[in-house]
Amino acid sequence: xxxxxxxxxxxxxxxxxxxxxxxxxxxxxxxxxxxxxxxxxxxxxxxxxxxxxxxxxxxxxxxxxxxxxxxxxxxxxxxxxxxxxxxxxxxxxxxxxxxxxxxxxxxxxxxxxxxxxxxxxxxxxxxxxxxxxxxxxxxxxxxxxxxxxxxxxxxxxxxxxxxxxxxxxxxxxxxxxxxxxxxxxxxxxxxxxxxxxxxxxxxxxxxxxxxxxxxxxxxxxxxxxxxxxxxxxxxxxxxxxxxxxxxxxxxxxxxxxxxxxxxxxxxxxxxxxxxxxxxxxxxxxxxxxxxxxxxxxxxxxxxxxxxxxxxxxxxxxxxxxxxxxxxxxxxxxxxxxxxxxxxxxxxxxxxxxxxxxxxxxxxxxxxxxxxxxxxxxxxxxxxxxxxxxxxxxxxxxxxxxxxxxxxxxxxxxxxxxxxxxxxxxxxxxxxxxxxxxxxxxxxxxxxxxxxxxxxxxxxxxxxxxxxxxxxxxxxxxxxxxxxxxxxxxx
Amino acid sequence: xxxxxxxxxxxxxxxxxxxxxxxxxxxxxxxxxxxxxxxxxxxxxxxxxxxxxxxxxxxxxxxxxxxxxxxxxxxxxxxxxxxxxxxxxxxxxxxxxxxxxxxxxxxxxxxxxxxxxxxxxxxxxxxxxxxxxxxxxxxxxxxxxxxxxxxxxxxxxxxxxxxxxxxxxxxxxxxxxxxxxxxxxxxxxxxxxxxxxxxxxxxxxxxxxxxxxxxxxxxxxxxxxxxxxxxxxxxxxxxxxxxxxxxxx
Lengths: 490, 249
Description:
Helices cover 23% and strands 34% of the residues of chain A.
């Protein structure tokens, strides 16, 4: 009014990307390009057994015959797979302990707020109430540079290490489960990953063991022109419980970088896996230049009776997000859950959701999806609920809410429901709403500035999902939303 | 002292004039009532004073405690002690009343350079205010106006006023949607809040709220202008004769 402040919803989004710096280190990076030799090189570099080299090569040959999926509600120019470098690692020998890691890299994680020193992590605990420490596996470009609290976990019988280590130290487990949930030929990006995957995390929780601390992996892309292709495998034996969290960031660059990961979860009888993601890959600048293409396949199988797999994701980064963390409910009475917050701003595009495949009796699934679109972004929920003939009395509840900020963004919902059970119960609720000028005015009239107001409104909208995150990550997620929304009004 | 001073305020939306030169002086310790038929510009006046951006100010000025606020943002006006109780309070799903109120109190404290109130003290203050309005403390944990009845929404506005302790409160049709009992509780809450350092402006269509809160002045707006000012007896006269009595005047 009267030419005073023009705070309106248009433009309240778009903060600084705090994780956008580059770490200046020497790296051994493969020249761009992909052929059999590259696949062999990666496998040799990791000193892998012959069966795994062959496994990769089979995946590679399968991939050659596949085409990029284009059914998503996202648009991007053709990716030149020969222009990407498929392996990059800090120079020198692989560090045996964290003390041998390049201080520059340690400083990087410190700057990102990831504690890699167990003593420091423990000292922090005393100061900040009784927050239990979190074990971290830090993956830098193509390699894991260290994993904390390994000893403590080993005493409990829990294996938590880099994927490359697992291949050497626990080959039977890797061979038994690798590709058992996401087969090599599952889709284009999963096949690519199977051929060239570099590192990632491996978790094994033995029978009737409750993992004594939260486990987490922090993925960092640093090198230019590289892709990151990590692989995560989590196995929870009968009656085991584990809560795992992954975080990810990358430097700000003008070109797009590819991240194509595969995550496989296996829960046996009465086991529970809780998998949380806070995805903050570089989203590109406000004109849509640069950013990560996040094309990820995540799937868990509730193999045992009464097992439970729960995915919680907070997706604020990446230029394009294409991921559908899914659960195959094979065991009777098993439970699958998907809680998602996906925020897109500026020119970001997200096509994300889940698949709940009910095979066993009395299987239950819950899907809560919260999409927030701002700027000129596009945000799509895509979800499949399938009840197979054997899924007696299966039940699903889906709630799918979209929140729009401003006038130029888009929200889409693509639910697919396939029930072959007359007694199956499928509920789907969907809403689309807008951060309204009335809500904003109410907050401002009470003295709350517009940015704080929008972040409060968005956080309220996401409450059902944040509740599912481990405490400290819920706080983190709230802050991340606030940063991602900076400038959305004004 | 003049807490709120409005001089020759003319406001339009698009090219449509809504207010055509309003003058109003509100001093500390006073209760004013602004009455008028539907569409006379009452709510526009309330919203323009609070800084709503959908209106064009053609001329005139608004001052709070002697300082002009005509071009300030809504939050700056709030920081200076201006409060608007909304006619149609809007929902903010998932944001609890408590969280919302604490954010409001904190931002006002920050603007004033005061230390933030502790969570414990805040809870205490909020509970007392809720009880005063006959609201269960559980009410504070619910989402802002989320699933509230019409009466609860109006009480929630007054709750916010009691907690924020503004210097000038403009209550826009706070009585509408309240049953007789709720009206009495809300009116008692407002009466208990008024003192010699603050002022309340009641914007209302009906005189029934004024049975509970005796106004010092009554102003009648018609067609964008204040056509008559007087004491409480003017409201009673209006009630008897209807607004057409003034329009035909």
